[in-house]
Amino acid sequence: xxxxxxxxxxxxxxxxxxxxxxxxxxxxxxxxxxxxxxxxxxxxxxxxxxxxxxxxxxxxxxxxxxxxxxxxxxxxxxxxxxxxxxxxxxxxxxxxxxxxxxxxxxxxxxxxxxxxxxxxxxxxxxxxxxxxxxxxxxxxxxxx
Length: 144
Fold this sequence. Notes:
- The protein has helices at residues 50-62, 128-140; strands spanning 10-19, 22-27, 37-38, 41-43, 65-80, 86-101, 113-117.
- The protein is globular and about 45 Å long.
- It has a single domain, classed as Nucleoside Triphosphate Pyrophosphohydrolase (Alpha-Beta Complex), CATH 3.90.79.
- The longest helix has 13 residues, at 50-62.
- The model has no long low-confidence stretch (mean pLDDT 93).
- Strands 1, 2, 3, 4, 5, 6 and 7 form a 7-stranded mixed sheet that branches.
- By secondary structure, the protein is α+β, with helices and mostly antiparallel strands.
- The termini are far apart.
């Protein structure tokens, strides 16, 4: 199924991964939000659980191995074209993940990836709602 003008919503996952006072971020290599920075993630593939998908997607984008520890939220990400037709529709499962191992190396879906200090999230072109979400999660857990 095409991700552009899909017939059905596409399930996706993303990971807020914290290591010390840093959060793992990746630059988006595909629409929507091409070139913006956010938390690593992508579409769930047929036959895998959401947790398997988040581990795979984070590794594919960053070379970092994570362990999902908590489902943080579920939300719809819908964008429409100029005539109102749905261009993208994802149902996103956002996880808090624990860093397990690996050095950051950007993957095929992410032109760049890095650990960013939670005090310096403005140093990358991060999507505003993603920054607010990260800050909310970190504040609720006493990390910010």
